[in-house]
Amino acid sequence: MASAAVSPALANISNAFPGASINLIKTVLTLPSLFIIPFSIISGHLVHKFGNKRVLITGILIYLFGGVAPVFADSIAELLIFRAILGCGCGLIMPVSQALIAINYEGTLRTKITGYSGAASYLMGVIASFVVAPVSSIDWHYSFYIYLIAIVVLVLNIISLPADKPERNDEVKHSKKFPGVVWWIIAGMFLVNVAFYAVPANVALFMKEQHIGVAQSAGTVISAFMISGFIAGVILSYIQRFLKRYTVVFGVGVMALGYVILSLSYNLFFVIAGAAFVGFSFGVLFPSFIILITGKCSTNSCVLALSFSSCAQFLGQFASPYILQLIKTVFGLKSLRSDFIILAVCLTTATVAYAGIKQVMKYKLTH
User: Fold this and answer.
1) Superfamily assignment of 4-160+180-366 in CATH?
2) pTM of the entire predicted model
3) Least buried of 193, 270, 283, 335, by fewest C-beta within 10 Å?
4) What 3-state class would DSSP assign to 163?
5) Sign of the C-alpha dihedral, residues 306, 103, 283, 285?
């Protein structure tokens, strides 16, 4: 909900600020990610001093203010300031929410709960996409009322989450150590988010550029995007049980297929289908990366490792439009469709290469 919740409102926000460039309008979505990055690291350190519950509740309060305050924004500058505050709150929340699962669950149950966590995020995205698109057509300010849902989350955490004790200095020192291989997983998290975020950042503007559907159609596309991710989260444990070590390869391949479809889309049906494949793939990949990280870290090192993971996730989201714009500039491309073509090529190549590496590793282990 940090960024993509108001994705269906981007076209209407763009209309409200005709003097703002497309990249500046996209910053409404991506700016929270930039502020999530340092506050994710801060979160990992604060947990050791104040405990999970205090940091989580503080983060939710900041998130609530930053999320709803744009209702009163009258300029693009004010809107961006409030979105930055939202990012600060989300940065405190993300590592704690993921670490609580790693601390309290193990094995298959951890996989299932991590999948459910991703599914819950997507479910709220589905609700947001149905609500935001029509209300933003009335007034783009109304889109940001969706963040009031944080009040419910705040109350539930105050009532239900047990208080925990801060760690001693020797525990803090030990907790900062995690295996080097985790950095490779974190790098993968960054690249997947660069690719994934092209849908929420571009789809409403792409449909406007290509004259596909009406203003509310972007909400339908984002709904399909979110529903497919929700389904992936719910069935993740079954996917992992069947595919095992090839789960990540499968996820990257499905994302590649989604962008191939989007790059060839000239009507609403294909845009919906392409977005659904991308959403499903991220519903597989995001929790899979979290499971890989928590599986290689001790209980004490999980929070800090997941802090860096959150940094990579949102740095990828923030950097996504700029990286794609750089590639387009190099190759002399201009249309928003080019973003999807670039990702289709890159992800297809990555799928083939990654599958090949997995096969080589399997061969070496068996011979």
Assistant:
1) MFS general substrate transporter like domains (1.20.1250.20)
2) 0.79
3) 335
4) coil
5) positive
